[in-house]
Design goal:
Layout lengths: L13 E7 L3 E4 L2 E3 L6 H12 L3 E7 L10 E5 L2 H12 L4 E4 L6 E3 L9 H4 L7 E3 L3 H8 L6 E8 L4 H15 L3 E6 L11 E7 L4 E7 L1 H12 L3
Parallel strand pairs: 1-4, 1-6, 4-5, 6-9, 9-10
Antiparallel strand pairs: 2-3, 7-8, 10-11, 11-12
Helix pairs in contact: 1-6
Bound molecules: cytidine-5'-triphosphate (CTP) and calcium ion.
Cytidine-5'-triphosphate binds next to helix 4, strand 9 and helix 5.
Length: 227
């Protein structure tokens, strides 16, 4: 089941991209975060802009420099990201969830800084599940013909098993396309090179690309919206 690509490229289209990693606060100065810098989402935003799209970048704690010429919507937590994405997706031809969303958040937020004297030698933090932004957007489909793209960073080293995880995930999320990549302590994060496989809702491989995040962004957008 091939998704209908956005016709005639991205010129004049509205593209909403989330990038970075959410941070879930424990107290006013501490959070649970992840290793995402936002590099791939920023590269996608720059490439979509260069193709003539109106680009909205929903930016969760970016470490990569934000691109010029796109509208930035800053968010911190998964809850803020969900709210911003639902609002912006209403006008989007393409939605790309490149952000690393925390799957869980602390069940409680301490309004004052936590103190060791009150906590003792070992601490247990209770976490609760966050909403799934990608699945929510895909289920709501606020605009007919909208293309919804997810990402999946997997540590599974075997390419076939990684593909199987991606096929299960794209089906579970209801996305049109899923960009799969392998990550680890030494790969996948930051401004360096990357390698991805793009699959569609039916699990078919639509593109494989390796190289700079800019070149990979171009390969992804070629699948989303062929010129
Ligand atoms: N995602 C999301 N909201 C969440 C978690 C993930 O929108 N609460 C999105 C990510 O932005 C990404 C896609 O879902 O586009 C896949 O994220 P991933 O963490 O690989 O999938 P999960 O469903 O969280 O599964 P896992 O248990 O493997 O982490
Ligand atoms: Ca996850």
């Amino acid at each position: 089941s091939e998704p209908a690509p956005v016709p005639q490229g991205l010129a004049g289209r509205t593209v909403v991209i989330s990038a970075g990693g959410t941070r879930e606060p424990l107290d006013p100065v501490r959070f649970l975060g992840n290793a995402s810098t936002g590099s791939q989402g920023v590269a996608l935003a720059a490439e979509a802009r260069d193709r003539g799209a109106d680009v909205v970048l929903v930016a969760a704690n970016l470490e990569a420099p934000a691109p010029e010429g796109v509208r930035i919507v800053p968010v911190r937590t998964a809850a803020e990201l969900l709210e911003a994405m639902r609002r912006e997706a209403a006008a989007a031809d393409v939605v790309v969830m490149a952000a690393a969303v925390a799957d869980y958040r602390p069940a409680a937020f301490a309004p004052e800084k936590l103190k060791k004297d009150d906590l003792g030698d070992a601490v247990t933090v209770e976490l609760v599940r966050n909403p799934d932004v990608l699945a929510t957007i895909a289920a709501e489909r606020p605009r007919p013909g909208q293309v919804v793209v997810g990402f999946a960073a997997e540590t599974e080293p075997d390419a076939e098993r990684r593909l199987a995880l991606g096929r299960e995930k794209v089906a579970r999320k209801g996305a049109d396309l899923l960009v799969l990549n392998e990550v680890g302590l030494d790969r996948g994060f930051g401004p360096g090179d990357t390698a991805v496989t793009v699959i569609d809702a039916g699990g078919a491989v639509r593109a494989e690309a390796a190289g700079s995040k800019a070149s990979v962004a171009a390969a992804i957008l070629d699948v989303v919206a062929p010129a």
